[in-house]
Every structure is written in structure tokens, then in C-alpha cells.
Design goal:
Elements: H1 2-8, E1 13-20, E2 22-24, E3 39-43, H2 46-57, E4 72-74, H3 78-81, E5 94-95, E6 98-102, E7 108-113, E8 117-120, E9 141-148, E10 156-162, E11 165-169, E12 176-181, E13 196-197, E14 206-211, E15 221-227, E16 230-232, E17 243-249, E18 255-260, E19 263-268, E20 270-271, E21 278-280, E22 287-299, H4 326-339, H5 350-362
Helix pairs in contact: 4-5
Length: 372
């Protein structure tokens, strides 16, 4: 009955962690804070159900760092997130962020980890080699774009979307899927299509930016390398993390994506009189590009109503369902959440192995032979 109720009305709870793929190391007294700062979103109907359960046991109204019954809720810890940095004494080349969540009544929700973040000393100024793909940006990957007027940290603005419109925000950032397009002079592009292709993004390529949260899309753009506030029109090297770049509207005569306070506008660049392969930009047209990661944890404790933390939550990247294995998938999916199976590439707990074996034997599917 519990499983049937869950399938009819899934009370899933999802934790989304968004963060940058790289972090620049600080040196001396200069602190290079994470940019963009990590942020966390809660989605799914299970959060409201859990709040109602706790409210029924306590007179105090529960909340999770700011109460909200919206479908998607952003957790507000911006002051803490914006103060994160890597010290110059740190020797590790990679690290993870650790997020611990609690309800306001003290009940622990669980511990959640980000993906690996690479530590770099500074943005690479050398031409990137595709042999070292850690710092290259590939088609279909997610990126964030930010702008700093006069290179001042306090003036940082992130390209974002609000109300279906592109904005430059000092408070929130959005992840964009960066797609590499085919030659847009081809015939079928006149119908508004954008044929995609795989590969690493090079300067001079035609790209498209799609907001991962809203699906709002910018027109096709040509990505240009920026050197000393000039857009370089003849550079075709691979793009690297934290590079400064500009986005020229495809088919335009020097029109670039630009910010003006919190508005996103088009800026008409001036051709360089001495060098024809350069366009002179303003501060608002120079963007810094950085790859981003999203890790998603989805769980539900509506069946068991347990008080223990849900972590570690298994991260299932693929499920291969066969007729004989249909029962195995169900057993694994539900017991994982109760027992806390760390990752999908580790051996399952002994109790889970025994349960799978007994289930298979009882239903005469594979006898005692099983594969996990």
C-alpha cells in the first residue's frame, strides 16, 4: 500500500547544488573568492509534506533556512558562500564542497557533496592544447558568465534570467548550456534552426546560450577572445576556464552582448583604425567565462518516515531494466534509500545483496545467481 501511494503521488525531495568547476587559489593577503559562489536549491513536493509532518509534532512552525511553499526554493546563505576561498597553503589540486542541511527544529536532513572542483593558480594565458582538456570548454557543457567593471570585485554582475528576460544580477547567477553550432550560412538555418555539433569551443565559433533553469535562449553568437578590451577577430584557439571573452551577435556589424547596470543590451563596438582584426569594446561587453557543475540528490522518506539522516544518497546515473531484472531494480531503488548506499560504483551492503538474492530465488528468476 505504501509503494502504491508513493507511485500515485511521489513525495520526492531534491537538493540541487550548483558550483563552479574551478577555483582560483589566493596568494598572500589577496583573497580570491569563489566566483560564482555555490548555491543550493530545494525542489519537489516532499519538502512541503515534511514540513507539515514536523509542524504536527511541534507548535513551532518549521522552516529550512527561510520558509517557502514554492516548488523551487533557494537557500539563503549568500554571505557565507561569497566568503569561500582557497588559501595559498592548500596543496590539494581538487576538493569538494560539503553541505549539511538541518530543519529548524534541529533534525538533520543529511550531508551532500558537490562534484570535484579543480584548483588553479590563475587563468591560463597560453594557447590551450586539446591534450589537456581539464581547462577546455566543450559543446553542451554548462557555463556561467560574469562581468566586473574596472576589475572591481564589488561590481561583479552575473548573466541571469528573470521573468523570461536576460538580466545582469549582483545577487544571483544562472547556468547556461553552451552549444557549438554548425556554419549558420547554410540553407536550413534560415528557418530559425540551430544545428548543433560536438567538440571543444574555439574562439570565432558560433555558439548558443540556453538557460538551464528556464530554457530562455539568446540568438546565435560568435565568441571572441578579449585582450586589453579589444575583441580579437582572427583568434581561433580553444577557450579556457576564466578567460575574458565577448559575444558578437551573428550576422551583425560589430554588435556585442553588453550589460548596462542590471539590463542586458547590445553594444556597437568601434573597429580599431590601426588593426582591422580588432574591435574596441567597453567594460560592459567583456565577460569572464567559467564552467559550472550541477549535482542533484533526490530521495523520499515518505514510506519509512525515518528520523535518521538520508545521506549518503545514492547517485544513479543509469538504470538498465530487463524483464528478469525488474524486481532487482525495485529492491535496489528502495533499499538504497533506507540503508544509505554511498555511490553507484561501490559494492552494495551485505544486507542488500542478501535481499536481492532471496527475492530472486523466491520468484524463481535467476536462482542464486545475481549481478549488481
Amino acid at each position: 500500500d505504501g509503494v502504491r501511494r508513493y507511485l500515485q503521488l511521489p513525495a520526492d525531495q531534491t537538493v540541487l547544488i550548483l558550483h563552479a568547476k574551478v577555483a582560483q587559489k589566493s596568494y598572500g593577503s589577496e583573497k580570491r573568492f569563489f566566483c560564482p559562489p555555490p548555491c543550493v536549491y530545494l525542489t519537489g513536493p516532499g519538502w512541503k509534506l515534511k514540513q507539515e509532518q514536523i509542524k504536527g509534532k511541534s507548535r513551532r512552525k518549521p522552516h529550512i533556512i527561510g520558509s517557502s511553499h514554492m516548488e523551487t526554493q533557494k537557500l539563503n546563505f549568500e554571505d557565507c558562500a561569497k566568503a569561500l576561498y582557497i588559501s595559498d597553503t592548500e596543496k590539494r589540486k581538487h576538493f569538494r564542497l560539503v553541505l549539511k542541511l538541518f530543519f529548524s527544529n534541529g533534525q538533520e536532513i543529511g550531508t551532500f557533496y558537490s562534484k570535484l572542483i579543480k584548483v588553479i593558480s590563475k587563468p591560463s594565458q597560453k594557447k590551450q592544447s586539446l591534450k589537456n582538456t581539464d581547462l577546455c570548454i566543450s559543446s553542451g557543457s554548462k557555463v556561467s558568465l560574469f562581468n566586473r567593471l574596472r576589475s572591481q570585485t564589488v561590481s561583479t554582475r552575473y548573466l541571469s534570467v528573470e521573468g523570461g528576460t536576460f538580466i545582469a544580477s549582483a545577487r544571483q547567477w544562472a547556468a547556461f548550456t553552451l552549444h557549438l553550432g554548425e556554419d549558420l550560412t547554410c540553407s536550413h538555418c534560415t528557418r530559425g534552426e540551430f544545428p548543433l555539433r560536438e567538440g571543444y569551443i574555439h574562439y570565432g565559433s558560433v555558439v548558443q546560450l540556453i538557460c538551464t533553469a528556464t530554457g530562455v535562449t539568446l540568438p546565435p553568437l560568435i565568441i571572441r577572445k578579449v585582450t586589453k578590451q579589444y575583441a580579437m577577430l582572427d583568434v581561433d584557439e580553444p577557450i579556457s576556464q576564466l578567460h575574458k571573452c565577448a559575444f558578437q551577435f551573428q550576422g551583425s556589424d560589430g554588435m556585442y552582448l553588453c550589460l548596462s547596470t542590471e539590463k542586458v543590451i547590445q553594444f556597437q563596438a568601434s573597429p580599431c583604425p590601426k588593426e582591422a582584426n580588432r574591435d574596441l569594446l567597453n567594460d560592459g561587453s567583456c565577460w569572464t567565462i567559467i564552467g559550472t557543475e550541477t549535482v542533484e540528490y533526490t530521495f523520499s522518506d515518505s514510506l519509512a518516515c525515518i528520523q535518521d539522516p538520508v545521506s549518503p544518497v545514492p547517485l544513479i546515473t543509469m538504470l538498465e531494466v530487463r524483464r528478469a531484472f525488474r524486481l532487482v531494480v525495485l529492491c535496489a531503488a528502495f533499499v538504497n534509500l533506507a540503508q544509505g548506499w554511498p555511490t553507484c560504483d561501490l559494492e552494495p551492503p551485505a544486507a542488500l545483496q542478501k535481499l536481492i538474492c532471496c527475492s530472486l530465488y523466491r520468484h524463481r528468476l535467476w536462482g542464486w545467481s545475481y549481478r549488481c
